[in-house]
Amino acid sequence: xxxxxxxxxxxxxxxxxxxxxxxxxxxxxxxxxxxxxxxxxxxxxxxxxxxxxxxxxxxxxxxxxxxxxxxxxxxxxxxxxxxxxxxxxxxxxxxxxxxxxxxxxxxxxxxxxxxxxxxxxxxxxxxxxxxxxxxxxxxxxxxxxxxxxxxxxxxxxxxxxxxxxxxxxxxxxxxxxxxxxxxxxxxxxxxxxxxxxxxxxxx
Length: 203
What we know:
Blueprint: H1 3-18, H2 22-34, H3 40-58, H4 62-67, H5 69-91, H6 108-120, H7 123-136, H8 144-173, H9 179-202
Helix pairs in contact: 1-7, 1-8, 2-8, 2-9, 3-6, 3-7, 3-8, 5-6, 5-9
């Protein structure tokens, strides 16, 4: 695939993925409550989910999303329910009286499941790859090597965006040392997570 096409794809993806949405809101919420290291499984799941959507588009399998619409709808609402449950958990999370310990993160598999649910159930991401991508790239002429190049470009762009957001949230988290600050962080994170669930559910 020529460099021009990859740059166009990277630019479009940067604009689409860089704008705050359900995925970014969920990512920031998890960093605030668990720290940047704890969200690595979440980030990996987000990138895997986007690679799945990209592969569906590149290999002409978009019809699967239409044929098995019910399956994707179930995934979407399961993701919404899980995000809502996480929001409730964050809202009621206890804080340490001494202010030395920040809220703990979920287990890695839970973080991965959350990231995958957010990405696969996010209509914004689905529409980019299944509807917008074909207008940017001639998918009919993408070879296996081209798919690898697109996937690598996608990962690089998403890493730059998502890690940037995670680092910013992590810096904010350093100031959360008092019980009141931690309680505010929990409530803000819960609100962000609930907002992500609402955004996915409303589309």
